[in-house]
Amino acid sequence: MTAEDIEQLFFDAAKAELLMPPVMQRSKTTLWPETQAKDWMNYANERTEVRLTATNEQIDRYEKAIFLALKLPHPVDRKIVWLRANNCSWKRMAKYLRKDYRTVQRMHRQSLLWLAKWMNEHG
Q: What is the pTM of this model?
């Protein structure tokens, strides 16, 4: 695997995370008594929401990305890789980490190269 493959894996994992259901589901309870449905009461909800979910392949790649991120030796490297996968700008990351943006870019690139080397050695 190359550093670009690793970076794409993290981008895919970030997309898959957005498609996953929330941790806490809102309960749908009502105090209305059960009634027999009537034809005149059947109407479509005007605010119908369609929620896409992650596929099995996306979840597998998500798990692989999390496993790889945990292999990075420094927590700040994990943050940089994950923030970049979520399309965080270099400037915003630099401000968050209190570093120069070029330093953050270099740290990101080194992290990806380290992960690619680790993957090639350990499979």
A: 0.77
